[in-house]
Design goal:
By secondary structure, the chain is mainly α. α3 runs antiparallel to α4.
Amino acid sequence: MLKTVTVGLIVLAMVAMPTLAFAQTAPAPTDHATAQSGGWQLLGARGLAMLGAGLGAGLVIIGGAKGIGQIGSGAVEAIARQPEAGGSISAAMIITAAMIEGATLFAVVVCLLCVIFGKAL
């Protein structure tokens, strides 16, 4: 059930993104009538880049934390079943957690670069 709700919220967020990103750019108004009926801009390219980077970084951190949590849970269960293999299980757990941590850090850096260079989009 929780998985279905999570996927539903992610799909809802993806459907809502074009609505948030809708922007109508208009030239600077020259008279009062044009200023009254002129376009508005909810999010520009910079704001959209920051919004996407923030959502992306949050999802990456959640995914990394879930992966490391499952690794820890599996390692503790394995050590409880077979205590004599605790050393090798712990070593494999630390190596795998470090690999997930590295991938998570890389993805967060990419999201931050999107914020820094968002104006170029």
